[in-house]
């Protein structure tokens, strides 16, 4: 996987692959090595924390590992590995506009509309997502290179 566009917005599903070994984690890691143009939102941090807690609760991850991953994410944010995009009232209004327009043509959840709006308002040129619903909505939006390109739609 190669991503030319810059800056690059990572949604929660992409951010998770950086910290938890999953399918496509290695390919994404290789594509991001050395990049200094990575954007994430506060929403992604909260959603990833929720996903870590769920994995601990379901026994897929032990509590110590979950806390260690959580702490590492925030160390990386503090070290400038990512530019943190705030969810402002302007972000919410843009998300609502997307729900009323794009949502008529593609399934679009509230959190997904916030990711799209945050990426757009931060001038991202690419959006990385492994969430099929957000991937389809981002393609319909048409403002970004959507990565990975070959993600099949939800059956």
CATH level 4 superfamily? 5'-nuclease
> Any idea what the CATH architecture is?
3-Layer(aba) Sandwich
Number of helices: 7
**Strands ordered across the widest β-sheet:** 3-2-1-4-5
Q: What would CATH call the class?
A: Alpha Beta
Helix vs. strand class: alpha/beta
- List the uncertain runs: none
> Strand-and-helix sequence, N→C?
EHHEHHEHHEHE
**What is the percentage of strand-forming residues?**
5-15%
* CATH topology call: Rossmann fold
Approximate helicity band: 40-55%
The N- and C-terminal alpha carbons lie at a distance of: 24 Å
| Number of separate strands | 5
Number of domains: 1
Quaternary organisation? single chain
Structural overview:
The protein is an alpha/beta fold and 155 residues long. The protein has one domain (8-147): 5'-nuclease (Rossmann fold). 54% of the residues lie in helices and 10% in strands. The protein contains seven helices and five strands. The chain has helices spanning 12-19, 25-32, 42-57, 63-78, 89-101, 110-121, 132-141; strands spanning 8-10, 38-41, 83-85, 126-128, 145-147. The chain has a five-stranded parallel β-sheet with strand order 3-2-1-4-5. Strand 4 (126-128), helix 7 and strand 5 form a beta-alpha-beta unit. Helix 3 (42-57) packs antiparallel against helix 4 (63-78). The protein starts with 7 loop residues before the first strand and ends in an 8-residue tail after the last strand. The mean pLDDT is 91.
Defining key terms:
single chain; 155 residues; alpha/beta; Rossmann fold; five-stranded parallel sheet; 7 helices
């Amino acid at each position: 996987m190669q991503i030319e566009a810059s800056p690059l917005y990572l949604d929660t599903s992409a951010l998770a692959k950086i910290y938890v070994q999953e399918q496509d984690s290695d390919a994404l890691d290789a594509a991001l090595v050395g990049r200094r143009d990575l954007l994430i939102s506060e929403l992604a941090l909260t959603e990833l924390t929720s996903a870590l807690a769920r994995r601990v609760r379901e026994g897929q991850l032990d509590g110590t590992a979950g806390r260690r991953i959580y702490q590492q994410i925030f160390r990386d944010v503090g070290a400038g590995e990512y530019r943190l995009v705030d969810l402002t009232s302007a972000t919410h209004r843009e998300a609502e506009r997307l729900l009323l327009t794009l949502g008529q043509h593609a399934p679009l959840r509230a959190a997904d509309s916030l990711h799209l709006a945050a990426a757009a308002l931060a001038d991202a040129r690419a959006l990385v997502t492994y969430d099929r619903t957000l991937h389809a909505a981002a393609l319909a939006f048409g403002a970004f290179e959507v990565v990975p390109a070959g993600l099949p739609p939800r059956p």
